[in-house]
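Tokens in:
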């Protein structure tokens, strides 16, 4: 950072010398008034301009906790559900302060200090209290004297990506956000669940030539890997090193090389355990990256200043008679006028392109709406076809608008270069969002009875006699069956609503972009007018210049006397080793009897996992809802899958996470269970998904390992598998991937509650729940809270559960249950 400050000071000194040359007397100062104003604006802009770091990451990866750690205080709200919905800009300040800026220009910014900051952030930056950003927050700016990145750096925290139910049109958002930052801090966790999306987002940043630092957060949740008998196979540090290598391999497979990875625990940093948290190393790494970036930024500014000064020498200070200078000034003015007309025409064409796109999309929407109105409950094939085309249309409209937006951004950049403006001097800050759509439907079988008249004389006679006595003689009855769409009205309404919302979204998007075009066009026109005004003044004062050649020589000497900045050091920093997070180990001698007793206790404790697993399966047998002899275990993190298998299925299976790939089918020689299949769904290909669908097509029980800490990202992962969970006629048992980090934040009840809501939003009922943790208490609680009977509804239910639990576990259980009931009410 010192290097950046030195180069910034050098630029300011060069501007001061140029200003001194152009204003050595009042005649020169009047003549070069517009140039002096330009220099003053650039000096002010560059002195106040800070490095901008974009903090992005998959939802619930601990971004808010990391921001709090970097701010040195617990300010931003944290939650299991997707919470943040606004940009939060963090920087150094002499005192702790928060300023909330609103989109409505008539609404004054709101300043918060002291204890009001946390409450204000909970109100304005949390999706739960400010759903859909109904408060109209434009930006939240946080200043703190404890900001670890120091002066001259701005950290921009963004809403989490890949959140189920929060379809934010990520690609458009990232195309607008990323060009405005100097570097990217991407936050993920030590879990493999979001590796696929993580590499996609990091790739977008690298495509824009942005330096990227990947942060693996939540290393405090890493546990040692144990064997069947409880022996330690790998220490926490070794497991952590494996997570680092896995992430590097994922990035490498995506073609992304030389990305630095920092492993941290933001929770430990907030608890003042800085040395083991890895946060100081992350801060040092960020500062090294900014120091490497500093020459690039400074060189760009120096190049702009050099071009401007050389143009000034050529146009204003070149030797020659006054008539030649005046001719050049007239030609310059004519060129500015022509350019102004060209820009007007160019941006008018851009407006027309967006309007044409809106009209085309609206026409498609009208045609789709007409087809929706002609649907009926029995036209199932037509409904599937129309649903597919509506979904395709919903994907194509943002792609079309995104292409126009990208072309517009390039056009603006080219125009800025032609006018010698920096791209970030133009206001390009636009964000877009839209609601998610659920167009799924189910079919049901209908039937009715039809009577056909019997033929011949006897038939007619029977009908005559039947009519006399009031019977159905003379008729043959038959039953007609057919399939139709269940709740057809709701499905039709969902299609109409999706089309209507998309049309409104497109209209809002186009209006926003047109406003943006007009704003940028006005800014460029203002810049041209300023140039033209300056030229006109010069034309009236050309004769006042008597010593242009002297000034030109002095300015050339200034440019020659300044050496160009060195290129940034391309030598990559050495890859940091995995932080050592193992506790101090001590060897002690114990008698064989004590060792045997300890091993026996471990085996007895491990039997409890089999008991609760069998209890969940037994519930399905009692309900008669599935063939419990066939079991599918599926999840998105190979390590968690293997831990769950080795903890709950060790009597039948043994798993190694490195060997869990794709779909594996195992025949078991037992009476109660005959087949077990294991499916790794993280980045699963078509072969794996087809095998899973085939297995699920027959009666079985599905154990689905889900990350309840990142519930929004988990929903998106489940949705991307294209497995129709709502239509599966089998019991689904949720397996909470891990509760280590949830324990530390006292959010186990919230995670279980959000997991239940996720299952409900995906359209299926949980048949039970387990928790992949060494404390079987959590599995008991989860099964009671999320199981089919939802057994904790009253205080009496709570008392009944407590009677079943050991006395030592009741206090812990009561806290979880009461938090759950508070959320459920």
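Residues out:
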């Amino acid at each position: 950072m010192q290097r950046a400050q030195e180069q910034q000071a050098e630029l300011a000194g060069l501007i001061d010398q140029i200003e001194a040359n152009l204003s050595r007397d009042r005649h020169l100062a009047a003549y070069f008034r517009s140039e002096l104003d330009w220099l003053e604006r650039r000096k002010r802009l560059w002195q106040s301009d800070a490095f901008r770091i974009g903090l992005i990451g998959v939802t619930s990866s601990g971004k808010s906790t990391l921001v709090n750690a970097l701010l040195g205080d617990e300010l931003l709200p944290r939650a299991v559900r997707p919470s943040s919905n606004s940009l939060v800009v963090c920087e150094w300040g002499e005192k702790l302060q928060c300023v909330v800026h609103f989109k409505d220009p008539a609404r004054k910014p709101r300043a918060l200090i002291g204890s009001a900051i946390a409450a204000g952030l909970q109100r304005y930056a949390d999706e739960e209290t400010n759903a859909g950003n109904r408060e109209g927050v434009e930006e939240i700016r946080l200043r703190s004297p404890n900001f670890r990145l120091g002066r001259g750096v701005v950290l921009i925290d963004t809403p989490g990506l890949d959140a189920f139910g929060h379809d934010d049109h990520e690609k458009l958002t990232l195309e607008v956000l990323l060009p405005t930052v100097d570097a990217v801090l991407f936050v993920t966790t030590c879990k493999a669940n979001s590796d696929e999306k993580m590499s996609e987002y990091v790739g977008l940043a690298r495509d824009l030539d942005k330096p990227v630092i990947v942060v693996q957060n939540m290393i405090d949740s890493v546990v040692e890997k144990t064997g069947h008998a409880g022996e330690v196979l790998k220490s926490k540090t070794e497991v952590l090193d494996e997570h680092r290598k896995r992430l590097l391999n994922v990035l490498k497979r995506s073609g992304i090389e030389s990305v630095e990875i920092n492993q941290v625990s933001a929770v430990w940093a907030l608890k003042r355990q800085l040395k083991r948290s890895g946060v100081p190393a992350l801060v040092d790494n960020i500062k090294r990256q900014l120091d490497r970036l500093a020459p690039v930024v400074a060189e760009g500014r120096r190049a702009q200043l050099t071009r401007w000064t050389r143009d000034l020498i050529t146009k204003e200070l070149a030797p020659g008679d006054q008539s030649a200078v005046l001719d050049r000034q007239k030609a310059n003015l004519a060129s500015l006028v022509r350019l102004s007309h060209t820009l007007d025409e160019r941006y008018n064409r851009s407006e027309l392109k967006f309007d044409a796109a809106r009209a085309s999309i609206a026409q498609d929407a009208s045609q789709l709406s007409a087809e929706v109105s002609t649907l009926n409950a029995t036209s199932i094939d037509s409904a599937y076809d129309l649903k597919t085309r509506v979904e395709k249309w919903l994907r194509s409209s943002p792609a079309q608008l995104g292409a126009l937006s990208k072309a517009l951004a390039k056009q603006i950049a080219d125009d800025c270069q032609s006018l010698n403006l920096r791209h970030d001097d133009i206001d390009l800050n636009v964000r877009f969002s839209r609601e998610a759509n659920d167009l799924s439907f189910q079919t049901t079988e209908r039937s009715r009875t039809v009577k056909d008249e019997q033929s011949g004389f006897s038939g007619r006679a029977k009908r005559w006699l039947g009519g006399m006595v009031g019977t159905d003689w003379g008729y043959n009855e038959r039953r007609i069956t057919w399939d139709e769409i269940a709740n057809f009205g709701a499905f039709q309404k969902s299609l109409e609503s999706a089309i209507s919302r998309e049309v409104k979204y497109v209209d809002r998007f186009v209006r926003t972009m047109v406003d943006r075009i007009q704003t940028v066009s006005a800014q460029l026109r203002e810049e041209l007018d300023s140039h033209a005004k300056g030229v006109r003044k010069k034309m009236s004062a050309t004769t006042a210049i008597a010593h242009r050649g002297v000034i030109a020589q002095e300015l050339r000497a200034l440019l020659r006397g300044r050496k160009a900045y060195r290129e940034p050091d391309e030598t990559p920093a050495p890859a940091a080793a995995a932080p050592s997070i193992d506790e101090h180990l001590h060897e002690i001698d114990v008698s064989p009897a004590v060792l045997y007793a300890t091993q026996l206790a471990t085996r007895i404790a491990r039997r409890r996992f089999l008991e609760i697993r069998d209890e969940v399966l037994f519930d399905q047998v009692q309900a008669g809802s599935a063939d419990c002899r066939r079991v599918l275990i599926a999840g998105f993190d190979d390590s968690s899958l293997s831990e769950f298998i080795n903890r709950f299925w060790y009597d039948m299976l043994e798993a190694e996470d490195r060997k869990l790939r794709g779909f594996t089918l195992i025949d078991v020689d037992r009476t109660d269970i005959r087949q077990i299949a294991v499916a790794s769904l993280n980045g699963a290909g078509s072969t794996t998904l087809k095998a899973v669908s085939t297995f699920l097509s027959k009666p079985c029980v599905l154990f689905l390992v889900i990350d309840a800490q990142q519930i929004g990202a988990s929903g998106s992962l489940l949705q991307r598998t294209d497995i129709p969970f709502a239509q599966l006629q089998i019991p689904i048992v949720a397996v909470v991937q891990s509760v280590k980090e949830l324990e530390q934040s006292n959010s186990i009840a919230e995670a279980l509650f959000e997991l239940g809501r996720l299952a409900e939003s995906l359209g299926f009922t949980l048949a039970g729940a387990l928790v992949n943790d060494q404390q079987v208490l959590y599995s008991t609680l989860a099964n009671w809270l999320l199981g089919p009977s939802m057994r904790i509804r009253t205080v009496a239910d709570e008392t009944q559960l407590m009677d079943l639990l050991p006395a030592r576990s009741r206090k812990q259980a009561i806290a979880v249950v009461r938090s759950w009931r508070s959320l459920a009410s």
